């Protein structure tokens, strides 16, 4: 899908490449679409690959949507893609917990958006935080005590447009005070094209904030991570 | 002021120490006060030092207040302290700009609270952001364009209980897009005792968030920094 590589491929080389590869992994932002617009040539390329029986996987670090929501986006752009062909970092976070036998009775605190909550729920985990904590304010009084759920066993941090002091304190307390609590980053992208015209702070911003308070480093599950590649290879 | 050191000082040693030192630097949180309560023995110790003609400096990394506001806090606790005996990280940030001849026609964007704005104003600089941007929301539409002031020449990041996506984007755009824009951290404390009973995310949290989006490291002006020590030594 990269312009420069495409140019240097002769018709013969392209055929050879096609024959030698069983599965194609695609990034989404900037490869399939830019904002809400489909990139030229994408539908034809995908049709061609499908007609040759190739397996397609669409990978995205943007954790704000679930696979279901991404499938809807693909359909709205006129591309038929199944949910199980999509690998979003929101899904990756839920799969990390599943693969590592995260106890079902434990809870997960989310600094992030709807996509992570949906994937956690679909994988059978109990999630707290996310959009529900987006408008919570704290009034700091000298004798106030901020309580957190001692049963939270993992904090997942992704892109969160509604980041606030409440969520930062909640996530920090879980990681610092709940024994063995995991700290999972959907990804660490510094910025991302949330709109057509410019970049915005990415998950790397929120993840760094929690690194700053906890002085801990997260497990990263999106691109580039060994978890993602291992998981896709086993699929 | 440290309990262990005090115990190991004999009366004679203490006298020797007192005679050999002209100025005493005190931390505030946990040394002078804890939350809103004065620590035992503080007024007597300070009186003793003053009666021997010692210079006293009160240093604090908490940037939410200005020196003026700290002087008020000292007075309310029954300790007479002058504004010019206080060295807060909010003041340190303004002094960094002054010492480095930051152009008066340039503006400063603040991720932080009232204290930084007050110190900037008192030092004759034009500040944007801070509490005024605490309730600003962004509605992300594909064609929206977030505008920032191209005349911002420095971004100061301190503790901000009202941190939000708006401020993170504003600060990031200034640092990434305004040529030569400075990135100044009041301090990088991971957490701080904002209330009596527990710790809360410190300036290190907000600073790390901006490091995460800009992929740049700040100039730190509070403890521990060479700027602070050099400035105090010259005073």
Describe this structure in words.
- 2 copies of one chain form a homodimer.
- The first copy, chain A, has 235 residues and is of the alpha/beta class.
- In chain A, 38% of the residues lie in helices and 18% in strands.
- Chain A contains 9 helices and 12 strands.
- In chain A, the strands form 4 sheets. Chain A has a 5-stranded parallel sheet, sandwiched between helices.
- The model of chain A has no long low-confidence stretch (mean pLDDT 93).
- The A-B interface holds A 35-36, 138, 140-146, 160-165, 168-169, 172-173, 188, 190-191, 194-198, 200-202, 204-215 and B 35-36, 138, 140-146, 160-165, 168-169, 172-173, 188, 190-191, 194-198, 200-202, 204-215.
Features:
homodimer, 235 residues, alpha/beta, 5-stranded parallel β-sheet, 38% helix, 18% strand, hydrolase (chains A, B), HAD_sf (chains A, B), HAD-like_sf (chains A, B)
Structural class of chain A: alpha/beta
Widest β-sheet, arrangement of strands of chain A: 7-6-8-9-12
| H/E element sequence of chain A | HHEEEHEHEHEHEEHEEEHEH
Counting DSSP H or I runs of 4 or more residues, the number of helices of chain A is 9
**How many β-strand runs of chain A?**
12
Q: What is the CA-CA span between the terminal residues of chain A?
A: 23 Å
Give the helix proportion of chain A (percent range).
Answer: 25-40%
Oligomer: homodimer
Percent of residues of chain A in beta strands?
A: 15-25%
Main beta sheet strand tally, sense and closure of chain A: 5 strands, parallel
Q: Low-confidence spans of chain A: pLDDT under 50, at least 5 residues? A: none
Identify the overall geometry of chain A.
elongated
Of all chain pairs, the largest interface belongs to: A-B, 43 and 43 residues
Q: What's the alpha carbon Rg of chain A, rounded to whole Å?
A: 20 Å
Mean pLDDT score of chain A, rounded?
93
């Amino acid at each position: 899908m990269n312009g420069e590589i495409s140019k240097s491929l002769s018709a013969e080389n392209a055929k050879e490449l096609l024959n030698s590869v069983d599965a194609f992994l695609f990034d989404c932002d900037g490869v399939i679409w830019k904002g809400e617009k489909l990139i030229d040539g994408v539908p034809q390329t995908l049709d061609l690959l499908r007609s040759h029986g190739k397996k397609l996987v669409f990978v995205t670090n943007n954790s704000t949507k679930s696979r279901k929501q991404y499938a809807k986006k693909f359909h709205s752009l006129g591309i038929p893609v199944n949910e199980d062909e999509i690998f979003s970092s929101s899904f990756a976070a839920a799969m990390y917990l599943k693969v590592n036998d995260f106890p079902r009775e434990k809870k997960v605190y989310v600094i992030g958006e709807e996509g992570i909550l949906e994937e956690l729920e679909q994988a059978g985990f109990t999630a707290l935080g996310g959009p529900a904590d987006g408008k919570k304010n704290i009034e700091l009084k000298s004798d106030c005590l901020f309580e957190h759920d001692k049963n939270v066993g993992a904090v997942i941090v992704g892109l969160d447009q509604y980041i606030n002091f409440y969520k930062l304190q909640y996530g920090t307390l879980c990681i610092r005070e709940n024994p063995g609590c995991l700290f999972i980053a959907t990804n660490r992208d510094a910025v991302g094209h949330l709109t057509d015209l410019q970049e915005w702070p990415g998950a790397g911003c929120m993840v760094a904030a929690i690194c700053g308070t906890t002085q801990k480093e997260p497990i990263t599950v999106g691109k580039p991570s060994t978890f993602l590649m291992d998981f896709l290879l086993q699929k």
